[in-house]
Amino acid sequence: MRNHPAVVLVAVLLSTLALPVSLTGASVALPEVGRDLDAGLAAVQWVVNGYNATFASFMLATGALADLFGRRRVYAVGLALFAGGGLLASAAQDIVLLDLARALSGVGAAAAATSASALLAGAFHGRARARAFSVFGTTIGAGLAFGPSIAGLLIEAFGWRAVFAAPALVAALVLVVLVPLLPESRQPGAGRVDWPGTVTFTAALLLLIFGFVQGPDYGWSAPVIVAAFVAAVALLVAFVRVERRSAQPMFDLSLLANPRFVGICLAAAVIVAVLVPLLVYLPSYLTTVVGVSPGRAGATLILLTAPTLVLPLLTGVLTRLVQATTVTVVSVALVAVGAAWATVLGPHASTGTLAGPLLTIGGGVGLSIGLLDAIAIGSVPPARAATGAGMINTARLASETVAIAVVGAVLASTTGGRLADPGFTGGLRTVLWVMAGLALAAAVATALLARRGLPRAEAAGSAYPGGS
């Protein structure tokens, strides 16, 4: 069975399922974590933000390391870090240790995710590769769709620690049983890792998140918060200068001259900036304000995530009938409508009350999965396809991480750091209205930018890159 494509597929699918479950599961566990470890809101937020920040920051760097030193080797290291971080988090008796363990898990997740897709691409070819990546995308959707409900059941049966232990054990199983059977591969003529770009980008992102998370606790005018924001801006400026001078940059900034690519990245960033903060904070609202159990809260979130399992299949049909750009704009507009509609939530909200808005947001997300990546990659020259894919994924992860931090800062301010009423309902409604406005603006901007960069052939028809 060594080097068999089926083994690669099973290993990649198992590890891929564990990564989103670790994110959405943590969001359901936050209230329990705060109570058990007697931690304030800012410290508890780092359970999610620490994982997301390192995941986003190390995505491109670990991809380059995999090309240099071997995909299986970096995949194994990533699984080991993810599993070790998860087991450490499940045993943590202190919130600081838990936060550090989650950051470690994020680094491992980045290494495992980038290497997994490369291993899959190397093991399958032609139509088999297309089928393999279709299953791969469905698995990511399944992790997002059922992660909250799985986490809710784990919490009710074993406590919050199981939410971190279960994905870690899955990763450890893959590491011990399947990784020895995987083939090794490297990118011929692979370049070096852009460490200056990685360091400046990571530091800027962490400082920005630190400012938003700790701002309500320390005070927005506190010297340390002001210094964090100033340093984050300075590091972002340094990052741009480093990337412009680098022969092999982490971010190919010249792609930002392509209006269509920018429009698609904007759509991808805004969609996750609405979806992921809801995945993080809605379970807390349902358990602390509405008063439902963690299992019931997780089940309710299936309404938000289930469309990601079904609608990607419909997108391929739609793009044969209308332009892919139109489908993209509609998906962002649906997210905007759903966010505005979700302001009906309140202390007495039922699953039926939330079904419409959550399904609408999920519908917008589901229509965009796969489509945005295909358009983004198809809008850049083939030789830069990998760079384009890395940039859109990093844009997603960075935007969702910052969005979680910003939403958390707003809710911390309106609730006095307790994530409870009075203040939680009003704060969450304010956040939803802002999300709706931003998504609507993004839909308009995406339509204008994508149309400017639209090839004449597509302007006359309705094909999209990567689809038929």
TrEMBL record:
GO cellular component, one term: plasma membrane
Transmembrane segments: 49-69, 74-92, 104-125, 132-155, 161-183, 195-214, 220-240, 261-282, 294-314, 321-342, 354-376, 397-419, 431-450
Pfam families from the UniProt entry: MFS_1
Cross-referenced SUPFAM superfamilies: MFS general substrate transporter (SSF103473)
Name of the molecule in the record: Major Facilitator Superfamily protein
Alphabetical keyword list: Membrane, Transmembrane, Transmembrane helix
Keyword hit for Thylakoid: no
Intracellular or extracellular location(s): Cell membrane
Domain Major facilitator superfamily (MFS) profile, chain residue ranges per copy: 8-454
UniProt-recorded Gene Ontology molecular function terms: transmembrane transporter activity
Keyword set includes DNA damage: no
Membrane topology: Multi-pass membrane protein
Organism: Micromonospora siamensis
Entries under InterPro entries matching the protein: MFS (IPR011701), MFS_dom (IPR020846), MFS_trans_sf (IPR036259), Sugar_transporter_CS (IPR005829)
